[in-house]
Design brief:
By secondary structure, the chain is an alpha/beta fold. It contains eleven helices and 17 strands. The chain has a single domain, classed as Metallo-beta-lactamase, Chain A (4-Layer Sandwich). It has helices at residues 38-46, 65-81, 118-126, 167-173, 177-185, 217-221, 231-234, 256-267, 292-296, 317-326, 348-354, and strands at 2-6, 15-21, 24-30, 54-55, 57-59, 84-85, 88-89, 159-164, 238-243, 246-250, 274-276, 278-280, 298-300, 302-305, 332-335, 357-359, 368-373.
């Protein structure tokens, strides 16, 4: 079996993955949304029998509050939950300089310049030997050149290939690290519009809500693409997950140029689109993180969006239109909420004209689950 579940994480990500034998699956968790939505992750863990509360891998993709906030709550709550974790993947302050490694527990200055960096403290308290253990405690970065290959397989056979970030983008994050970590780790709860500048993200221009009739997919898809340039997003971990002959791209908030380069290196000399069973859209379906070229680089049946639109009105119409236009006939759009920002895509006439499908949760607060193999 291989399933992906987008938990209800408001405007963030909380991705629950199960793979292996149906009666005894292995589990991966990628991000935990904000601190405010951590209860949904907690409930998912508590639904497991106590003996099964184990994660082979817990990934914190980057320092934006909508990915990292709940992660700190999870690590604080870990013992009470009876949760064990095989490896934690997170690029901390120590990894921002080339060659940086997880410090020894007895080091006096384990946090470098950020004595208040809460997630690092929690990971060190959990088990520093299990922090980025897959790469010997070093940074999780894409090598500068050469083909990309999976890291050592996780228990149960899941293979993960790192697609983002590059060391260059970690270098660029250093000047803004303190502000972003302070926002994510010290100020509790979700980000507000006034505080969003601390995340290195900018609000996107409002779309025209007074559109009569169906949207013009061709016109939206052809809108000139301007790549996201937020430094925390550029530092995001993105992964290609492979299990049971199924391949999934989990894009975090990664940038299009980085993903395009990585996908070309995964394909190597093989021409044509890279086959995928599913792709979790970068940055919650932002127009600056999904280009026509990126959609054309893969052959993907299922496109996943994690957002309730609360922060930046994601997903943007241009991003979804690009998927519909270039994704091929019969693509499925999977949303973990039904909102005013994505409900427009459930138009019967649009679905007939452009030959795509839409999938929404059966009830509010359920999230959405995609079964890739049995």
């Amino acid at each position: 079996m291989f399933t992906i579940e987008l938990l209800p994480a408001e405007f963030g990500d909380a991705i629950w993955i199960e793979y292996g034998k149906r009666g005894a699956p292995h589990r991966i968790l990628i991000d935990c949304g904000t601190n405010a939505v951590y209860p949904a992750v907690r409930e998912r863990i508590l639904a497991l029998p106590p003996a099964e509360r184990h994660l082979e891998l817990f990934v914190v993709t980057h320092v934006d509050v909508d990915h990292i906030g709940g992660a700190m709550a999870l690590l604080r709550d870990r013992e009470q939950l009876g949760l064990t974790i095989g490896d934690i993947w997170f690029n901390g302050y120590v990894h921002l300089a080339p060659g940086g490694k997880v410090p020894l527990p007895e080091d006096d200055d384990i946090l470098g310049a950020l004595q208040g960096e809460a997630l690092t403290e929690l990971i060190m308290a959990h088990n520093p030997a299990r922090w980025n253990a897959a790469v010997g405690g070093g940074a999780l970065v894409v090598p500068d050149e050469g083909p990309l290959a999976p890291l050592p397989a996780l228990p149960g056979g899941m293979k993960l290939t790192l697609l983002s970030p590059t060391q260059r983008h970690l270098d660029r994050l250093r000047p803004v690290w303190e502000a972003t970590c302070k926002k994510a780790g010290i100020i509790p709860g979700a980000a507000t519009a006034a505080e969003s500048g601390l995340l290195g993200e900018e609000g996107e221009p409002d779309e025209d809500d007074d559109i009569l009739g169906d949207l013009n997919v061709d016109q939206l898809a052809a809108t000139p693409f301007k790549s996201d340039a937020a430094r925390p997003n550029a530092s995001s971990i993105a992964l290609l997950a492979e299990y049971d002959k199924q391949r999934v791209l989990l894009a975090g908030d990664a940038l299009v140029p980085v993903l395009m380069d990585a996908l070309a290196r995964v394909r190597g000399k093989v021409r044509g689109r890279l086959p995928l069973a599913a792709l979790k859209l970068s940055h919650h379906g932002s127009r600056g993180n999904t280009s026509l070229d990126l959609v054309k680089a893969v052959k993907c049946a299922n496109w996943l969006v994690s957002s309730n639109g609360k922060q930046f009105k994601h997903p943007n119409r241009e991003a979804i239109a690009r998927v519909i236009k270039a994704g091929g006939s019969g693509v499925g759009l999977h949303f973990n909420y039904r909102t005013e920002f994505n409900d427009v895509w459930d138009s019967a006439s649009l679905r007939r004209k452009h030959k795509y499908k839409t999938h929404y949760p059966a009830d509010e607060g359920m999230g959405i689950r995609l079964e890739l193999s049995k």
